[in-house]
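anyone seen this seq b4? input:
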Amino acid sequence: MLAVSHQDLGDENAALESFAASRDAVRESLGADHPTYPVSVSNVENSLAKLGRYPEAKEALREVLADRRKLVPPDPRAIAITLSDIAELYEKGEQFATAAARFAEAAEGLSPGDRLRDLMKVRGGRQACARNPGRSLNFVPMSLLAWMRSVRNIVN
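predicted toks r here
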């Protein structure tokens, strides 16, 4: 994909243009209700976030979330990942209480059969926001024991 090549070359503005063109093409040819449309919007969001355009990125993710919730049948894992991505944008904007609430909502949507990395990401983000309400956060891998406790708490 051309947009990925632009990213590999470090030109995020060109990548954003390509991802936006791809999103528009999917919408025009397949419709906004097609399961691939939220993925194309998510690609635009990723570029916006990399450019530091967080309000626009949050708006794109809200669109992705609404689209994913409309899919029949809905994909709870995809919804949880989108909520987690929204939470990360709030965290970058130092809106820690809102970020923690989105992480909690994401964790509620995950089931025991979901990929463990997703469980760890959501649970780790939620705990990090709760522990550090007043400073910027970096997600640091938890120790194996702490991670196992986190997964057990989500699953149970």
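The radius of gyration is 16 Å. The chain has a mean pLDDT of 76. kinda curious what u guys think
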